[in-house]
Every structure is written in structure tokens, then in C-alpha cells.
Amino acid sequence: MRILVASKFFYPRGGLERVMFDEIEALEGAGHEVLHFSARHPLNLPSPYERYFAPYLEIGSGSGLGAADKIRAIVRMFRNRAASKRFGDMLDDTHPDIVHVHGIHRQLSPSILLEAAKRSIPVVHTLHDYHLICPADVMLRAGEVPCLPRACHRVNCTAAIRNRCTRGSLAASAIAAAELSFQRITQVYDRTVTRFISPSRFLAELMAEGGWTRTPIDVIPPGATARPTRPGGHGGYALYAGRLSPEKGIEVFLSAAREAQVPAVVAGDGPLSESLRTMFPEARFTGHVSAAEVDRLLGEALVAVVPSVSLENAPLGVLEAMAAGVPVIASRVGGVPELVEDGTTGFLVAPGDTSGLAAALARVASEAGLRETLGGAGRARVTERFTAERHLAGLLDTYAQATGERS
Q1: Share of the chain above pLDDT 90, in %
Q2: How far apart are CA 210 and CA 162, in angstroms?
């Protein structure tokens, strides 16, 4: 099968891109041909198809764009003619059997999907966040608390403006709300996407609640590779690995580690890096590290902590810790309970509950037998339910259904 994978970035930027590149590797390993389409970002990895890539304009804060380029970037969020033209040319030149898109909003826009629809090419869309029901993507009201029940409705997204949900900015929130309302009114996703993929039942149910009932949604959890052994937590610390941003709850984790008197290691970087280092000088901050270094840190950790206050979908950090046989303490949010069995593979605590997290940390740190039991159960759960092979099989089944529906 010839599969065209499209995403706005073609470099390891975050969890979305990690899933995408893992899928590309698995598909190619299974004998399929994978083509690439993206925006022409300066950090992109090499691709034989980069001649088709769309022009890139940074639309975030601190972009340094002039007024004309800012307007051009905003217009492209709604309809990106340059990306559509290049995407159409690529479709005509390469004739893929299916198009699989990941994060295309804002930089590429769903207008590229119209080109696939014109040529009767089925489209599969993986949902990595809440963009199709939340202008700010993360379901955090005012960027602080989970937005449940949802404040924004199917077309009316003015609540996101009132609450300044996008970067705390009235202007950015208004633009994001207008963009989502525009896509819902024009029904571009409804008219072009053959099947959605959701990594969790939680997100699939929120999508249905938000009015996405016409297009089938296949729940395909991410996959991980279980490891037969681990060093056994000889480092003596609790590990957080990920982005250092407010919704991730790192301050809650570090406060709980201080209360439980458990050494804490923080692997990653982000906007909170400097303030956290000042507030918690006893913690060890590694900064950004490679995937191999995260693996090493996991191997020596007593426990992995995922303390998010946002509605995590299906965080890879949870599965990777379980695959390594490391107990997990995570917030009971979003799709996390679909991965972690409370009391069996780890512990679930209420988001923002410093005392509850501290109690769980103290218990896991002090009981070697408990760590071994939880870690072994987590590794077994990955082997049974969350393997890379099962993920690939689910992906190929969705492709088969999508191509059959459009044949």
C-alpha cells in the first residue's frame, strides 16, 4: 500500500511526531511505501518529497513576523491555498492509496483534504489532541483547569475568547475560536475525512459529545515494546520526563516529592524551567535529553510520575514506563485510567492533589516488593494490550476499512 502521511512538522517536536515517525517506521518495516507531506520547517528531517512541502510561517508568540506576514499566516489557518496546490500536485504525481493526516490545523489547514476528496482518495485522521472540539487544543479553561463540561459548543466558541484560553491572549483566543467555528460551519472535515483514529476511548467519547457522529472513530491505543528486565530503581529517585509547562503539573510533583522526601529528577525543558529550578533547588533538572537518555533514567528510577492537571489523552510516558517495568503514579485524568490500573500497575491520584501524590510516592519508594509487583504487572499489561504490533494491526485495519468505504 502507498500511504501519504501529512503533518505540519516533520521533525521530532513532541508526542504527536513521535507517534507519526514510529508509525512510518512500522509501516515501512511491514513492506508499505510511505510518502511525506509537511510545512517547510527549518528543523525538518530530510525527505525525498520535501520539494512538495508547503511554505512555513511561524504563527506563535515571538515569531518576529511583520504585519503583512502575520495577516498571511492567519489567513492560512482558515484556507491555505499554497499548501493545497502543492498537496494536489503531490497527489497527482504519486497516486497514493490513502492519506493519513496527523496535526494539520493552522500551518497546513484542512483545505489540503479537499484535494484528496476531489481525487476520491480516502483520508484517515489521527486525533492527537482536542483541536476539533477545543480552540485551544488542550481542554483547559483559561489555560488552568479542565474544561468539563465543555464551555464551547459545536459552532459557538465564544467561551474560549472570554476565558482567554489560547496563551492567555484575547487576540490569539479570538483567532483560534474563529478558525474552529469556520471549519465546523464549512464542514470541511465532515466532507473529507473517511475515518478518525483516537488513541483513547475518552477522546472518542468527547468527540461524539461534541457532534462528531457522522464519521467513524476507531480507538487505537499507542504501542510500546516491553523490556524483559530493568536494573531495579538503583538511582533511588522519582522521574518526570516531558515538557515543563503549567498543564503538566510538575510543580505538584516536585512539592509532593519534597513532602515525601523522595529525590526527584526532571527530564525535559519548557517555559517553566527557570522558575522550577529556583523553587526546587533540591531537584535534579537534566534539561532536554535524548530518547536513549530517557530510557536510561527510567531504568534507574524508583517510579515514573505523570502529574498532569490537563486531560491527557494517551501519554506515551505512561506506556514507556510500564514497558520498562517501572511503577507509574499518574493523575486520574482523560485517557490515563485506560492505561494505568490503579493499585495493580501503579497508582492514580486526583490532579493537583499534592498530599495524595506525596503519600503514593512515599509508599512506592519505601516498599521494594510493591515496586517489583507493580512494575511486573505494568510490563505484562503492555505485552498483552499495548504492543507496537497491535497498534500496527489496528492501523492497517482502519486503512482497509477506509479504502473499502471509498472504493
Answers
A1: 81
A2: 20
| DSSP letter (8 states) at residue 337 | G
Cis preceding-peptide flag for 263 (omega within 30 of 0): no
DSSP state of 247: G
Are residues 168 and 141 part of one domain?
A: yes
Whether the Cβ atoms of residue 251 and residue 279 lie closer than 8 Å to each other: yes
* CB-based contact 198:175 (threshold 8 Å): no
71 within some domain: yes
CA atoms within a 13 Å half-sphere pointing along the CA-CB vector of 384: 7
Alpha-helical segments (H) within 270-367: 273-279, 291-300, 316-323, 354-366
Are 117 and 69 a contacting pair, CB within 8 Å? no
Same domain, 360 and 392: no
Best CA proximity match to 16, nearest among 138, 134, 172: 138
Specify whether the CB–CB gap between 254 and 264 falls below 8 A.
yes
- The answer to the question of residue 335 being in a domain is yes
The set of cell numbers assigned to 10 is 516533520
**pLDDT at 196 (0 to 100):** 98
Q: In terms of residue numbers, what domain contains 380?
A: 237-385
Residue 159, in any domain of the structure: yes
* 215-266 pLDDT, tens digit each: 999 999 999 987 766 556 788 999 999 989 888 999 999 999 999 999 999 9
Question: 84 and 34: one domain?
Answer: yes
Residues of the chain with pLDDT under 70: 59-66, 69, 228-232, 405-407
Measuring CA to CA, which residue among 221, 235, 133 is closest to residue 176?
133
Reading the block at residue 251, the C-alpha cell is 510543580
Q: What is the grid cell recorded at 81?
A: 491555498
Distance in angstroms (rounded) separating the CA atoms of residues 279 and 254:
9
Are residues 249 and 156 part of one domain?
A: no
Q: How many domains, the chain?
A: 2
Per DSSP, which regions of 157-224 are E strands? 195-198, 217-219
Residue pair 54/90 in contact (Cβ under 8 Å)? The answer is: no
Separate counts of helices (H) and strands (E) for the chain: 15, 14
pLDDT confidence of residue 212 = 95
